[in-house]
Design brief:
The chain is about 35% helix and about 20% strand. It has about 190 residues and is α/β, with parallel strands linked by helices. It has a four-stranded antiparallel β-sheet, covered by helices on one side. It has a four-stranded parallel β-sheet with strand order 6-5-7-8. The longest helix has 24 residues, at about 160-185. The radius of gyration is 18 Å and the shape is globular. The model is unreliable at about 1-40 (pLDDT under 50).
Length: about 190
Amino acid sequence: MKLRTSFTHPVSHETSYTTGCIRFLTKPATKQLAQPIRNLLPMNLLFLCTGNYYRSRFAEYYVRHRANELGLDWSIDSRGLGLTSSNVGPLSQYTIAECNRLGILFQPCRLPLALSTSDLELADRTIALKESEHRPLMQRLFPEWESRITYWHVHDIDCATPEEALPQLRQLLDELVQQLSIECSLGIKQ
């Protein structure tokens, strides 16, 4: 059985390839992810950070944008584990600037929200953006959920500039979207 076949259109130079039963279409000379033609399962994603103001909100808007581009039936949200009144306005200026730079709508532009048990119960996949910061908060606030979520290592503004942290976060998010779009197309929901 052939696992991968491909065909390049002679005029548009788009490449179509099939891996198993999933068909992808890629554009030539771009760094776009392979785009699934269909999505079989919806997905509920939840991103966590401390203040639900900068990193998790960027992740929410960026993944929602990518899911819409790919025609994926996903619900994406974000919450905070330790909201603070020191944040100015509903959203970080760095998140706003990066969304504007990338042409991403940052709607709904709401105030940060604290994580609840019902948020965790609704999510198919939950990702906390910095393990050393968020695992202790999960152990203290939601101990039964602490080992059931994924932890990344994306620094907050106190350890990395937005010019360092946001590209790293975008790369992780692109990899996540690619992985989950394949899983959804195969009917896998973890």
